[in-house]
Specification:
Blueprint lengths: L3 E3 L5 E5 L6 H18 L2 E5 L26 H14 L4 E3 L3 H4 L14 H9 L1 H11 L5 E3 L4 E3 L11 H5 L11 H5 L4 H6 L5 H10 L4 E4 L8 E4 L3 E4 L11 E6 L16 E3 L17
Parallel strand pairs: 1-5, 2-3, 3-4, 6-7, 7-9
Antiparallel strand pairs: 2-10, 5-6, 8-9, 10-11
This protein binds manganese (II) ion.
Manganese (II) ion binds next to helix 3.
């Protein structure tokens, strides 16, 4: 598939960042997409990478900083994504994250296991793992929309002259490298791994792609989202965040957003679980 996904200039776009194998949040964002389809008849759903690779922990071992408890269901997330894509041709989109990249030519990630690629493919077995890789190979590296939005997995820290630089980027051949090596690889290193971008770097990146601002995840924002300068918003829809703070975005693809400041809480920036209790009370445990 093309490295750059070009979204249309009409319809409602729902954006979901890092799920890391959380099937419950996947089901919730699909419900939101289904509602948008039912009410507008013209909706799109974009995942910005890292749909896979979550913790395999019992609830008793779950650290508080990881947000709401869940158990990794990466294989089910990708299986259900493939079904959803078949159901809604041309409306369900996904970007490669650094965790997907490990299965299709990138360095193997080590967030929750020494080799998460080997762990997941071992759990799935050969046939299902090959089916998963076939789905991941269709993911784009960057998405652009005429409304002004540019979408990446990591921060828009890459130096690019034009969309052509991204179209030409190669994804394979990094299996033996480490995540530290790939960060130095032009284009895909920053796009898949950078956690931040200087405002002037981000501005050049989004302008080279014909956009006005960039939406991405990759990092955890405990409050749900963070706006940086005029061109960047980091969004946490799922991983590492409590339900009350999980945020997704909804854009009008027919609009023209002049900067990230045109995104409003309650309109484009929306809670994944509007009815979740507002505060998570930390549990005091007696040590003795
Ligand atoms: Mn990531």
């Amino acid at each position: 598939m093309a490295r750059v996904l070009r979204l249309p200039d009409r319809g409602r776009l729902i954006i979901c960042t890092d799920l890391q194998g959380c099937l419950r949040d996947f089901h919730r964002i699909v419900e939101i997409f289904d509602d948008a389809m039912a009410t507008t008849g013209d909706a799109h759903l974009l995942f910005t990478g890292d749909l896979i690779h979550g913790p395999h922990l019992d609830e008793a071992d779950w650290p508080d900083f990881l947000g709401e408890y869940y158990r990794d269901a990466s294989g089910d997330v990708i299986d259900e994504l493939a079904v959803l894509m078949d159901h809604h041709p041309g409306r369900i989109h996904a970007l490669i994250g650094n965790h997907e990249h490990g299965h299709i030519g990138g360095p193997h990630t080590a967030k929750f296991a020494a080799d998460e690629v080997a762990v997941l493919e071992g759990l799935l077995g050969d046939a299902r793992a090959e089916r998963m890789r076939a789905v991941l190979r269709e993911f784009a590296l960057v998405a652009v929309a005429p409304c002004g939005a540019v979408f990446t997995h990591g921060a828009p820290a890459a130096t690019v002259a034009s969309i052509r630089d991204i179209e030409d980027a190669r994804l394979d051949g990094f299996e033996l490298g480490s995540p530290i090596d790939i960060l130095d690889t032009p284009i895909i290193g920053p796009i898949l791994w950078a956690r931040s971008a200087e405002p002037d770097v981000a501005r050049r990146f989004v302008r080279a792609l014909g956009g006005t601002f960039c939406i991405y995840g990759h990092d955890v924002i405990p409050e749900g989202f963070e706006v940086i300068g005029d061109e960047q918003i980091v969004v946490s829809t799922s991983f590492g965040v409590f339900d009350a703070n999980k945020v997704y975005l909804a854009l009008d693809l027919a609009a023209r957003y002049r900067s990230v400041h045109d995104l409003r809480v309650g309109r484009e920036i929306l809670p994944l679980y509007p009815d979740a209790p507002p505060f998570h009370e930390p549990v005091e445990r007696a040590h003795g």
